Amino acid sequence: MTQNPVQRFCLAWLIGAALLAPLAARADAVDTLREFGRDVHTGRANFSQSVTSPDGARKKTASGSFEFNRPDRFRFSYTKPFVQQIVADGKKVWIYDADLNQVSVRLMSAALGATPAALLAGAAVDKDFTLSAAPSRDGLDWVLATPKAKDGTIRTLQIGFKGKQLAALEIVDAFGQQSLLQFSDVQGNVKLPDDAFRFVVPKGADVIDSP
Questions:
Q1: pLDDT tens digit string along 118-156?
Q2: Which residues are CB-contacts of 47 (< 8 A; sequence separation ≥ 6)?
Q3: Which of 2, 8, 12, 195 could cross-link to 179 by cystine, CB 3.0-4.6 Å?
Q4: Number of compact structural domains in the chain
Q5: What is d(CA 164, CA 37) in angstroms, rounded to the nearest whole number?
C-alpha cells in the first residue's frame, strides 16, 4: 500500500454498519456542514488517521494536529509514526518530510481543488462538492461530499458531526484506498499565532517545485 504526501493529506476511512436516521435529522447534517464553513473561521484539533488498502488487508495509522484559518491557510502536523508537515500559507502548499529532509512545493490552485483540506479550510463548500445527507452511524451524523470534478484523486468523502462539532472525516480515493480521520479536542474560532501558517524551509532540505 503506497501513499504519497498529497494522498496522505487527502485521506479516507470507513467503520461500522449504517443505521438510517430520520430525514429531518439527516438534512440537518448538511446544514451543520454549511454552518461550519460559514461560521467557524479558525480552528484547531488533534487527529488520528487510519489508512486501509483497497482489499482491506493492510492498515497504517498516524496521528498529529490540524489548524486552519479560512479561507486558504492550514497546517497538518504529523507526529507519529513519522514527522511530516503540510502547510498552506495562502499562496503555496508546502509538504515537508523530515525523514527525507525534503520539501515539495505546489501552488494553492494546483494542490487543493476537491480535497478534504479545501472542504475544511476553504470558504465555499458547495463550489467543489455536491453535498447530500448520509445515514447516521457510529453515533455521528454524516454528510456525503461528492467531488464535482470527475478526474480528481478523491472518489467519495464523508464528514461526521457529533451535534454541531466536527468529529470525523472519511475518504475513499480513486484507487479504492480508504482513510479515516477522527478529531479530538476540537476548538473553533480560536486565536492562532501570526506565524502559524508560515513555513520556513529547514536547513539543508531539498526543495522540489511540483507542477
A1: 666 655 667 778 889 999 999 999 999 888 877 777 888
A2: 63, 64, 65, 66, 181, 182, 183, 184
A3: 12
A4: 1
A5: 12
pLDDT at 119: 62
Strand partners, 134: 142
Note whether 150 and 138 are within 8 A (CB).
no
CATH number at residue 182: 2.50.20.10
Whether residue 189 contacts residue 41, with contact meaning beta carbons closer than 8 Å, is answered with yes
Whole-angstrom CA distances from 8 to 26, 66, 101 are 29, 13, 17
State how far Cα 126 lies from the chain centre.
16
Is residue 42 within 8 Å of 68, Cβ to Cβ? yes
Angle at 77 between CA 75 and CA 102, to 5 degrees: 95
* Nearest one of 59, 86, 88, 87 to 71, comparing CA atoms: 88
Q: Which domain holds residue 76?
A: 5-209
Euclidean distance between CA atoms 174 and 164, whole angstroms: 30
- Grid coordinates belonging to 131: 453535498
Q: Are strands 73-80 and 84-89 parallel, antiparallel or unpaired?
A: antiparallel
Query: By the 8 A CB rule, do 180 and 50 touch?
Result: yes
Which grid cell is 34? 454549511
- pLDDT tens readout for residues 20-49: 222 233 447 899 988 888 888 899 999 999
C-beta of residue 117 within 8 angstroms of C-beta of residue 15: no
